[in-house]
Design brief:
Blueprint lengths: L3 H4 L2 H7 L5 H20 L4 H20 L1 H11 L5 H24 L6 H28 L10 H4 L6 H27 L6 H32 L5 H44 L1 H6 L1 H4 L11 H19 L5 H13 L4 H19 L16 H5 L1 H7 L3 H12 L2 H7 L1
Helix pairs in contact: 2-11, 3-4, 3-11, 4-6, 6-7, 6-9, 7-9, 9-10, 10-11, 11-14, 15-16, 15-19, 16-18, 16-19
C-alpha cells in the first residue's frame, strides 16, 4: 500500500518525515555543557575556544533557523524576512568556526604558531567580510513576502537576494569541504587515542553530511533558474541533512569525553569488584566486614577497599611463612606458571595458610618476624585475581606442603 503522504507527492511525504530542529539543538547543547568546564578553565587555549565557538554557533543556528523562531524574529522586528540574513550570518560564522577548529587542531604545535596565527586571521577576515556582505545585499534586495521555509527558492532569481543566497552557500560549502578532508586525513594519523578516533569519525560523517545540505539547496535554486520546481529539496532534504549532520558533529564532541569518563568508571568498578575475593578472605584478620559506602563515589569506594585490604595484610604480615612462600613459588613454576602468576599464587598460598591456621589472632605472638610486604601491598589486584582460581591454588599448595623426603622418594 502506498504511503498516504507519498501519494500526495514527495514534498508532503518528506514533510511528514521532517526532523525536528530542536533534537540536534539539544544534543549540541549537551555537548557544549560537557565541554564548558574545560573551556572556562583553559580559556587561553585557542583550540578549546574554537570548540566553544563552534558549539555555540551551532546551537544558535538551530535555535534561530527553526520555522517558529523565524516567524517570531520577523514579527518582533517588523521587517519581512529579516531572519534570513541573521540565519545566514550564523551559518557563515559556524562555517568559519569549523575552519578555525581544524587550523588549531592541525597547526597547534609551537613551531607552527605563526602559521596558525596567519591562517586564523585569514579565516576571520574572509568570513567576517562575507557576513558584512550578506547584510548589505539584504538591504539592497526587495523581499516583501515572508517565506519561512522556502525563502532560498522563492527569491532565487531576485536581484541581490540571489547573490546573498549563493554567497552564504558558497562559504558554507568551501568550509565544509576543507574541514571534511582534513578530519578524515587526521583519522588515519597514527597514535590517536581510540576514543578521539571515534569522535573524529563522527565529526567526519557530520561534516560530510553537511555537504548534502549545500547540494540540496543549490540544486533547488538552480532548478528555479531553469524553470523547474524542486522546492522540496530546500524545504525538507536540506534541513533534515543539517539536523543529521549537527547530531553527528555533537556526538563527535561528546564521544571522547563521555567515552573516556565511562571507561574510567568501568575500570574503577572492575578494580573494586576484583578485590572482593581478597577482602572476603581477610575479614577474620580485619575483625569484620569492610565499611559500607553505598553513596560514595567509585573512586572513594575503591580507595576504602584498598585501604581495608592493605591494613589487613599489614596486620597479617608477621604471621606469614616466608619459607612456605618460597616453596610455593617453586611449585608454581614447576607446574608451568609464568613468574608473575607464580608469585601471586605463592602469596595466596601463604595468606591462606596463615588465615586458616588462625595464627593471625591478636593474642598470638607466634609470628616468625616481619615478612616482605612490598609485593603484597603493591599487587593486591593480582593476588585477589588468583583467589578466583582455587584449583590452581590447591595444586600449588599441595605440592609446596609435601615433605621434601616424600617428594624425593616420589620423584
Amino acid at each position: 500500500m502506498t504511503h498516504p503522504r507519498l501519494a500526495e507527492g514527495p514534498a508532503a511525504f518528506l514533510t511528514g518525515m521532517y526532523i525536528s530542529f530542536w533534537l540536534p539543538g539539544l544534543v549540541l547543547t549537551a555537548a557544549l555543557v560537557i565541554k564548558l568546564p574545560s573551556i572556562l578553565k583553559l580559556w587561553r587555549d585557542p583550540l578549546l575556544r574554537a570548540v566553544g565557538g563552534l558549539l555555540l554557533f551551532a546551537c544558535a543556528v538551530f535555535a534561530f533557523a527553526a520555522p517558529a523562531t523565524i516567524s517570531w524574529t520577523n514579527r518582533v522586528t517588523g521587517v519581512p524576512n529579516i531572519a534570513a540574513p541573521l540565519v545566514y550570518s550564523l551559518i557563515t560564522a559556524l562555517s568559519a568556526s569549523w575552519l578555525l577548529l581544524v587550523v588549531h587542531w592541525r597547526n597547534g604545535h609551537t613551531d607552527r604558531r605563526e602559521q596558525t596565527r596567519r591562517a586564523t586571521r585569514w579565516v576571520v577576515c574572509v568570513y567576517a567580510a562575507v557576513v558584512v556582505a550578506l547584510w548589505v545585499l539584504f538591504a539592497l534586495a526587495d523581499v516583501p513576502v515572508e517565506q519561512v521555509r522556502n525563502l532560498d527558492t522563492y527569491y532565487a532569481s531576485t536581484p541581490f537576494m540571489r547573490e546573498e543566497i549563493l554567497l552564504y552557500l558558497l562559504a558554507h560549502t568551501v568550509a565544509c569541504t576543507i574541514t571534511t578532508r582534513l578530519v578524515w586525513n587526521w583519522i588515519r594519523t597514527d597514535g590517536l587515542d581510540a576514543w578521539l578516533r571515534w569522535g573524529l569519525r563522527f565529526l567526519g560523517i557530520g561534516y560530510a553530511t553537511n555537504l548534502l545540505f549545500s547540494a540540496a539547496k543549490l540544486t533547488a535554486v538552480v532548478a528555479r533558474w531553469t524553470g523547474h520546481d524542486l522546492d522540496w529539496l530546500n524545504a525538507n532534504i536540506a534541513p533534515s541533512a543539517a539536523c543529521i549532520a549537527a547530531t553527528f558533529v555533537a556526538i563527535g564532541f561528546i564521544v571522547p569525553h563521555a567515552g573516556q569518563y565511562f571507561h574510567d568508571r568501568w575500570l574503577l568498578r572492575r578494580q573494586h569488584r576484583g578485590l572482593k575475593p581478597l577482602a572476603r578472605l581477610l575479614r577474620p584478620v580485619a575483625g569484620g566486614r569492610e565499611p559500607l559506602a553505598l553513596r560514595a563515589t567509585a573512586e572513594l569506594r575503591l580507595l576504602r577497599r584498598e585501604t581495608y585490604v592493605r591494613d589487613a595484610l599489614l596486620q597479617l604480615s608477621r604471621f606469614l611463612d616466608e619459607n612456605l612462600r618460597g616453596r610455593a613459588y617453586d611449585a608454581a613454576l614447576a607446574l608451568g606458571h609464568e613468574p608473575g602468576r607464580a608469585q601471586a599464587l605463592a602469596a595466596a598460598v601463604t595468606i591462606l595458610e596463615a588465615v586458616e591456621s588462625g595464627r593471625h589472632a591478636p593474642d598470638d605472638d607466634g609470628g616468625t618476624g616481619e615478612a616482605d610486604t612490598s609485593y603484597l601491598l603493591q599487587e593486591i589486584q593480582a593476588l585477589s585475581e588468583v583467589l578466583r582460581h582455587p584449583d590452581e591454588i590447591t595444586a600449588v599448595r599441595t605440592r609446596a606442603t609435601v615433605p621434601a623426603e616424600s617428594m624425593s622418594t616420589h620423584e
